[in-house]
Amino acid sequence: MTASIKDVAALAGVSIATVSRTLNTPDRVSPATRDTVRQAVATLGFRLSRIGQQLRGDRSRLIGVMLPSIASPVFAECVEGIEAAATAAGYQILLMSTAYDGVREQAALDTLLRQRVDGLILTVAHAHEHPLLDELERTGAPYVLVYNQCPHRPCVSVDNRGAARDGVAALITAGYRRIVMLSGAMAASDRAWQRYLGYGDALAAAGLVATPALEVDFNSVTLPAVVLAALTDPETRPDALFCGNDRLAMLVMRQLQQAGLALPRDIAILGFDGLDVGTLMSPVLASVCQPNARLGAMAMQSLDLAIRDDAAPVSRILPHSLRLGGSAAPVRFRPD
Amino acid sequence: MTASIKDVAALAGVSIATVSRTLNTPDRVSPATRDTVRQAVATLGFRLSRIGQQLRGDRSRLIGVMLPSIASPVFAECVEGIEAAATAAGYQILLMSTAYDGVREQAALDTLLRQRVDGLILTVAHAHEHPLLDELERTGAPYVLVYNQCPHRPCVSVDNRGAARDGVAALITAGYRRIVMLSGAMAASDRAWQRYLGYGDALAAAGLVATPALEVDFNSVTLPAVVLAALTDPETRPDALFCGNDRLAMLVMRQLQQAGLALPRDIAILGFDGLDVGTLMSPVLASVCQPNARLGAMAMQSLDLAIRDDAAPVSRILPHSLRLGGSAAPVRFRPD
DNA sequence: CCGTTTGATGGAAACGTTTACATTCTGCCT
DNA sequence: AGGCAGAATGTAAACGTTTCCATCAAACGG
To answer: What are the residues whose beta carbons fall under 8 Å from the beta carbon of B20, sequence distance 6 or more?
Structure first.
């Protein structure tokens, strides 16, 4: 049994009110009593219980964080940003992962709401028309989406379509013409589709022809043989490959290199996410970079503001950037 | 204001006890009342507050997790394991990162203990003689270390020394002779030293000579010029390089490749951690693999058992494995 | 020397639950 | 019919805080 404020009061020979004051507003207690109480606190190793405080009606200072995965570097970096901002603002985070699974999402939401979190940060597969989010709005708990981008809800993200457009435009500037997109299943997340639209925008602006995206299972550890064949056959293979995320890009880089292709000479690769670990590849993975940690931090800040002002959190679009060169460096002598 | 059990009771026209029973032990309530209460619960969107329950003296079902970093894949994978096991056992995790900084560690510990976590999972720089851990033991809160390996405390880890020995022995078996170790600062973590000892063991067993480890700053994004020079100069460079962790190994792989060396022909690389992302490199990063997610899950399970039996958590050494080939494949034609 | 301010402290209520105990009612057994 | 078991429900205390209000003593002004 951990000591309670009563034990401290008893040991110090004062009332619990005085103990509370000593700990919260020491200047409202006489120096002598203050010392006695502090002595008792030290003896017992006492710490005020947040549970008691929460019950009293204070905010819980807990933020629920609900993400599809934790080990994925994208989300890991994001959580790091959230955690830093949360600590700075005096919150703690309750972390739950969902694998985009509706049942787990529902369970996580229930648990978090029962814990009376002050707010939630989450990423879902499709932000419009997600039953969970509607339920969440009904409860009135403030929440912000990260990575999702949806006009009707508070979101913190990059401009997925614009970012993809910029990245593919850079490929075109670098001299690539036959550009194909490799994506996780479009149905799996709304971002995939937005990025494909951006890809189309860039090609259209350059008068080039867009092709349907090659869709692969997001978690696969190898590329389907047919996809690999399409990418390696010297007759049919594209100039450049735009990958919907960095993990896919790294996967494809390794498989193409093992198939004997030289990157970016035989084929250029551009990823999306800007993962740190991409800079450890050789060639360095070119990528459309999202500021993952900042996305998380910004979501947390937006949420904090909303909590304090009792208002709806505001959406934010953070700037993306391009990491060029490396796997998408311009190639001078390209036979046409 | 979220509804409380009183609101439900009022709406349903029953006492709060009946509401509580309806929610916790529905069979002890008459079907008619049960329906009325459930109706009221639904109308108000009511969920029992964990705060009230915790206050009542139940366990908080919260586990504090305190790690040096979240974005590092090693810890990210570990957190994923912890979270899965925690959810399975009915806990939630409160995540805090410390960067091995004593001040942050102390602050995190205070916050977590005030939240009355049922137990803690943590990683520190040096497990023996860490003031925080002594304080923690005084509080009586159950805790388990992950990654740390220390005879006097509950730890879940691999056998760092043995694992390093096995890895380096495999390099020797593959034909490498002049093997050097590259490590993060030994002072930064106890594991670094343990791994260096394992390196020494393997060399000694083969009658080879160990050299002092090359120490570099763990977070650096490039290798110091002098280290790079030592590794690239054809006169002085070693056969094989054993890196204290995978991040370092990937860093060095890229820099050596950019310097024009062929891996593993000119120099073999062996990492430590077994990060998934290493398999995306080319050549695939050979590594001494820790089961990161399982380490986390096992720590959580051990903690859960300890909490339930009100006993001290038990230490566990999990088996390591080797991922060979790739950057440490045997080289047949090596000029001597 | 009295009345009033000021400062220090204590008493008690409130927050949201669970649960032991008390109460009421139904229906069964003899 | 009377008594009693058993089911259904209510009452109230307890958990650990904060804080309003009351109390009390000392200090101070007149």
So the answer is: B5, B48
Q: Are residues B121 and B223 in the same domain?
A: no
Domain count, chain B: 3
* Within a domain: A55: no
A164 and A287 in a single domain? The answer is yes
Contact A139 B253 (CB under 8 A): no
Q: Using DSSP bridges, classify how beta strands A316-318 and B62-67 pair: parallel, antiparallel or unpaired.
A: unpaired
- pLDDT one-digit tens code per residue, B129-177: 899 999 999 999 999 999 999 999 999 999 999 999 999 999 999 999 9
Read off the CATH number of the domain in which A39 is found.
1.10.260.40
Of B2, B55, B279, the CB nearest to A55: B55
CB within 8 Å: B54 and A50: no
* Res. B333: pLDDT tops 70: no
Distance between the alpha carbon (CA) of B30 and the C1' atom of D16, Å: 34
Same structural domain for residues B14 and B84? no
Straight-line distance from CA B298 to C1' D6, in Å? 47
Query: Token pair for residue A104?
Result: 């787990």
Q: How far is the CA of A318 from the C1' of C1 (A)?
A: 75
Phi, psi of B145 (to 5 degrees): -90, 145
Q: What is the pLDDT of residues B228-266, one digit of tens each?
A: 998 998 888 999 999 999 999 999 999 999 899 999 999
Site of tokens 């934790």: A70
The CATH number of residue B117's host domain is: 3.40.50.2300
Question: Which residues of B are less than 8 Å from A49 in CB distance?
Answer: 114, 116
pLDDT band at A26 (very low <50, low <70, confident <90, very high): very high
If asked whether residues A121 and A236 sit together in one domain, one would say no
Measure CA to C1' and name the residue nearest D20. A17
Q: What is the DSSP string of B157-199?
A: EE-HHHHHHHHHHHHHHTT--SEEEEEE-GGG-HHHHHHHHHH
Domain of A79, in residue numbers: 62-158+292-319
Cβ contact A51 with chain D strand, < 7 A = yes
Q: Is position B190 within any domain?
A: yes
